[in-house]
Amino acid sequence: MQSGDLDEGISGTLNAAGSCTLSLAPKTQRQRWKVANVAISGTGDQDLDAVVYVAGRRVAGTFSGNNENVPMSATLTPGQSITVQWTGGTPGAGVRMDLVGSYDVARGGGEAP
Fold first, then answer.
1. How far apart are CA 73 and CA 80, in angstroms?
2. Where are the domains of the chain?
3. Annotation: CATH topology of 11-97
4. Which among 42, 39, 48, 24 has a CA at the least distance from the CA of 70?
5. What SS3 string covers 28-76?
6. For the segment 93-104, what is each residue's pLDDT rounded down to a tens digit?
């Protein structure tokens, strides 16, 4: 089994309603992610709200979806994701989520994240 540090991120832009939803998930059928922290950020001086979901379940909400860290202990298998949904921001502003933890890849294939 191959393993290593997980450091995945994704960026997006708030739509005309001031909201955005971003998700990250294991990339192959043989990967398993162990997520220790979700970092949430936004550009500008925004008063964003953000909600974090793991495999479809709400696990955290923030009153400021900008420059927040959400510590957790979540294991994601293929088909599961971590999603952050921002609301209440300035349309066109940028948002980002970053995951930190570790990953495993079962024997037989799969690429490191």
1. 14
2. 11-97
3. Jelly Rolls (2.60.120)
4. 39
5. CCCEEEEEEEEEEEECCCCCCEEEEEECCEEEEEECCCCCEEEEEEEEE
6. 999 999 999 999
